Amino acid sequence: MSAYLNSYLMSADARGQANFYIESLGGEIQFLTTFGEMPGSPEGLKDKVMHLALTVAGTNTLMISDSFEPVSYSRSISLSLTYDDVSEAETAYAKLSEGGESKHPLALQPWGAYYGEVVDKYGVTWMITKQ
Question: pTM of the full predicted structure?
Answer without folding.
Answer: 0.92
